[in-house]
Write a structure and sequence with these properties.
Structural class of chain A: alpha+beta
InterPro entries (chain A): CO_DH_flav_C, CO_DH_flav_C_dom_sf, Diverse_Substr_Oxidored, FAD-bd_PCMH, FAD-bd_PCMH-like_sf, FAD-bd_PCMH_sub1, FAD-bd_PCMH_sub2, Mopterin_DH_FAD-bd
Shape of chain A: globular
CATH class of the largest domain in chain B: Mainly Alpha
Bound molecules: flavin-adenine dinucleotide, FE2/S2 (inorganic) cluster
Helix content of chain B: 25-40%
Number of domains of chain B: 2
Strand order of the largest sheet of chain A: 4-5-8-6-7
EC number (chain A): 1.2.99.2
Largest sheet of chain B: 5 strands, mixed
Number of helices of chain A: 10
Oligomer: heterodimer
CATH architecture of the largest domain in chain B: Orthogonal Bundle
GO molecular function (chain A): FAD binding; oxidoreductase activity
Keywords (chain A): FAD, Flavoprotein, Oxidoreductase
Strand content of chain B: 5-15%
Order of helices and strands of chain B: EEHEEEHHHHH
Number of domains of chain A: 2
Enzyme class (chain A): oxidoreductase
Helix content of chain A: 25-40%
CATH topology of the largest domain in chain A: Uridine Diphospho-n-acetylenolpyruvylglucosamine Reductase, domain 3
Distance between the termini of chain A: 48 Å
Chain lengths: ~260, ~170
C-alpha cells in the first residue's frame, strides 16, 4: 500500500468535511478497496473510514412503504433482516461472497464501486431504487455510468438506498464458483406499473435493463412469454470464464428462471 | 497513529502505521500468532477473527477501523488444558492435516454457530424463518469462506456437528 492518513469521523457531517481534503476517499467495508490498496491500484492520500458512523447503518421502512437501507449497512444484516419484507433482496445479500465478506462489505460501497459483476447494482436497477447521498437523491436509472463508474461526485457519500417493494421478485445468479461474483446475474421485479429486468455480469458497459424482456413480461408475467426472445451477444463480456455468446445465452435462461421462481 | 483494541478481554494501546491491517496488528504488534495469513486478500478465511461477536477476515480490515472494538482470536477461546468445545472437537475428530487453516476454521465455526442459533437462514436453507438444522449442506454453505488446502472438510464438518447444539 502507498502511504495514507486515516480519518475516523463518527457523524455524516464530519465525514463530508473530511472528504473535502485533497486526495481523500471514502472507506466503507474495505472488501474491495483494501485489496486494491494492497495491489497499489489506488493511492488515496486520506482515507475517511465510514465504519463508525451509526446514522448511515440500519434498515427501516418509510411512509411510502419503501425499504430504506443505510449506505453503511453490511450485506449480512440485509440477509438477516429482510427475509420477510423483501425476500429477493435478502436472498441476493445472502449470496454475496462468503459470511465474513458479508459482515463487512456494505451496500453503499458496492453501488459506489459499480463492479460489472456485482449483485447490488442489479437489485437497485430492477427495483427502481433511489440512491440518497449527502447532497441529493439519484434514481437508479441515472446512477450507473459504465464499468466501475457512477454519477457520484468527488467525496459524495451514499447514505441510504430506498427500494420500493415489488409484488414479486427474484434474483438468479450464475456464480463464478471461486469468487462467487456473478458470471451473469438477473434480477426480475414485478410492480403494478410494470416489470423491470436488470442484468449484471454480462455487459461490457456494466449493469443494464433488458427492455425487450420487460415489455413481454409486463403484459404476461410468465417464463413462456419469453419464448423466442434472446439477447444479442454484441457488447457482452468475453473472458476465460465465458464467451459473449455464452453470457448472452445465460441472460435468457436466467431471466426465465427468475420469472418462474418469482411466481 | 493510535488505536485502542480489546483483544481476548485485554486492552492494547497500539501506535501503528495507518496501513496496518488488523491481522498484522494481532501478529506483529500484539504477538498473537494463532491468527494466520493465508492469502491476505479475503479469499481463504485463515485470518478469521470475531469482531464484536461477528466473524470477519482480519486481513481485509485496517486496525484503525476498529478503535474500541472487541476482538476474539483463537487464543481467546481456550488454551491447552482448557480448550473450548470446538477446539477440542477439532482435535478429537482430526479436523485438520497441516493445521494452517484451523484457527480460521474454528473462529468461523464459532461465529457460524451463533448465527445459526440466532436463526439466520443461509442460501441453502429450505425455509427462511425458524430453527436452522445444521446438516452437511448447511455447514458447507455457512463455512464456504474458509478454505482448507489439505481438504480436511469431512472431519471439519464432523467436528462442528459434534458440538452443535451441545453448548
Ligand atoms: C472474497 C470476496 C467475494 C465477493 N463476492 C461478491 C459477490 O458475490 N457479489 C458482489 O456483489 N460483491 C462481492 N464482493 C464485493 C463486496 O460485496 C464488497 O463489499 C463491495 O463490492 C464493496 O463494499 P465495501 O463496503 O467493502 O466498500 P469498500 O471496499 O470500502 O469501497 C469500495 C468503493 O466504494 C467507495 N465507497 C465505499 N462506501 C461508500 C459510500 N457509502 N458512499 C460512497 N462511496 C463509498 C470507496 O471509496 C471505494 O471506491 C466480494 C468481495 C470479496 C472480498
Ligand atoms: S488471509 Fe485473510 S482471507 Fe486469506
Ligand atoms: S489443515 Fe491444512 S489447510 Fe486445512
Amino acid at each position: 500500500m502507498y502511504a495514507f492518513e486515516i480519518e475516523r469521523p463518527t457523524s455524516l457531517s464530519d465525514a463530508v468535511s473530511a472528504l473535502k481534503a485533497e486526495g481523500a476517499q471514502a472507506l466503507g467495508g474495505g472488501q474491495t478497496l483494501i485489496p486494491s490498496l494492497k495491489a497499489r491500484l489506488a493511492m488515496p492520500e486520506v482515507l475517511v473510514s465510514l465504519s463508525a458512523i451509526d446514522e448511515i447503518k440500519g434498515i427501516c421502512t418509510d411512509d411510502e412503504g419503501r425499504i430504506c437501507i443505510g449506505g453503511g449497512t453490511p450485506h449480512g444484516r440485509v440477509a438477516a433482516e429482510l427475509k420477510d419484507s423483501y425476500p429477493a433482496l435478502a436472498s441476493l445479500a445472502a449470496r454475496i461472497g462468503d459470511p465474513a465478506v458479508r459482515n463487512r462489505g456494505t451496500i453503499g460501497g458496492s453501488l459506489a464501486n459499480n463492479d460489472p459483476s456485482a449483485c447490488w447494482p442489479a437489485a437497485a436497477l430492477a427495483s427502481d431504487a433511489v440512491i440518497k447521498t449527502d447532497r441529493r437523491e439519484i434514481a437508479a436509472d441515472d446512477f450507473f455510468a459504465g464499468l466501475f463508474e457512477t454519477v457520484l461526485e468527488e467525496g459524495e457519500i451514499v447514505t441510504e438506498v430506498r427500494f420500493p417493494v415489488p409484488q414479486a421478485a427474484n434474483y438468479q445468479k450464475f456464480a463464478q464458483p471461486a469468487s462467487r461474483f456473478a458470471l451473469v446475474g438477473v434480477f426480475v421485479a414485478k410492480y403494478e406499473a410494470g416489470v423491470r429486468v436488470a442484468v449484471t455480469g454480462a455487459s461490457e458497459s456494466g449493469v443494464f435493463r433488458w427492455t425487450e424482456a420487460e415489455e413481454k413480461l409486463s403484459s404476461d408475467f410468465s417464463a413462456a412469454a419469453l419464448e423466442g426472445l434472446s439477447h444479442a451477444a454484441e457488447g457482452m463480456i468475453g473472458d476465460l470464464h465465458g464467451t459473449p455468446a455464452y453470457r448472452a445465452h445465460l441472460i435468457g435462461v436466467l431471466t426465465k428462471r427468475a420469472v418462474a421462481a418469482a411466481g | 497513529m493510535h488505536t485502542q483494541l480489546d483483544v481476548n478481554g485485554r486492552a492494547y494501546a497500539l501506535d501503528h502505521d495507518p496501513r496496518t491491517t488488523l491481522l498484522d496488528a494481532l501478529r506483529d504488534h500484539i504477538g498473537l500468532y494463532g491468527t494466520k495469513k493465508g492469502c491476505d486478500h479475503g479469499q481463504c478465511g485463515a485470518c478469521t477473527v470475531l469482531v464484536n461477536g461477528r466473524r470477519i477476515n482480519s486481513c481485509l480490515t485496517l486496525a484503525a477501523m476498529h478503535d474500541g472494538d472487541e476482538i476474539t482470536t483463537v487464543e481467546g477461546l481456550g488454551e491447552p488444558g482448557a480448550l473450548a468445545p470446538l477446539q477440542q472437537a477439532f482435535v478429537d475428530c482430526d479436523g485438520y492435516q497441516c493445521g494452517y487453516c484451523t484457527p480460521g476454521q474454528i473462529m468461523s465455526a464459532t461465529g457460524m454457530l451463533e448465527e445459526a442459533k440466532a436463526g439466520d437462514p443461509s442460501h441453502v436453507s429450505a425455509s427462511l424463518s425458524g430453527d436452522v438444522a445444521l446438516d452437511d449442506s448447511e455447514i458447507a454453505e455457512r463455512m464456504s469462506g474458509n478454505l482448507c488446502r489439505c481438504s480436511a472438510y469431512p472431519f471439519i464438518r464432523q467436528a462442528i456437528h459434534s458440538v452443535e447444539g451441545k453448548e
